[in-house]
Amino acid sequence: MKKTELRQLRKKYRKQGATLIVIAVIALVWLISKCSHTSLSVGANDGIDITPEQIQSIRDIGQWEFLAISDEELVDTTRRGFFSDDHLARIYYGTLRLGIDFQQTSDGWITTQGDTLCVLMPKIMLLDDNFIDEARTQSFHESGSWTGHDREILYRKAHRMMKQHCLTPKNLAAARDNGALQMRQLLRAMGFEKVKIEFEY
Q: What are the phi and psi torsion angles at 42 (to 5°)?
């Protein structure tokens, strides 16, 4: 083989080799760029789950008292007469119990967010509207003649006064705080460590 032909052959192989190197570099860059957008991670599943049976067991609690408020009210009335006035004054005692009724829970009131159990509790309410202890009612002062209807009017007035004095924003907030604490303790006893509790208003 002549020297000229040998040089041409070497030149040809160099061009082919350079082309192969360029192709290899392009392929390598493409491969690196693809891998940079793909990540592989290995970790534990931190999600939690609560079964319908567990949710129903909580709803079966029914009413749950969070705060009891004892109150007494002196209520009086006067009836004007021609010669003298009649007076009736009585002392009423009652205990108002604030809490929730799980039968009033909304749909989806228990949900999960990652490792946290989220609970939307029903609105704090007066659990029993018959909170006056009539057996403890005392007649403080009575003059003149009074009927059962007159005493019923006085009872209703005492009932309204107790609700007005006891169902305050402060007492409702205290009931919510106690409720959140007790609910959190219940759920932790069931195995749920991270709990978020809110109340309907």
A: -125, 125
CA 68 remoteness from chain centre: 21
Amino acid code (one letter) for 92: Y
pLDDT per residue of the chain (201 residues) written in tens, 0 to 9: 544 554 554 555 555 554 545 455 455 544 555 444 443 333 444 568 899 999 999 999 999 999 999 999 999 999 887 777 889 999 999 999 999 999 999 989 999 999 999 999 999 999 999 999 999 999 888 888 889 999 999 999 999 999 999 999 999 999 999 999 999 999 999 999 999 999 998
Structure tokens at 102: 């799980």
- What sign does the dihedral 37-42-43-45 (CA atoms) show? positive
CA distance linking residue 193 with residue 71, whole number of Å = 38
Sheet hosting strand 195-199, strand order edge to edge:
110-113, 116-121, 195-199
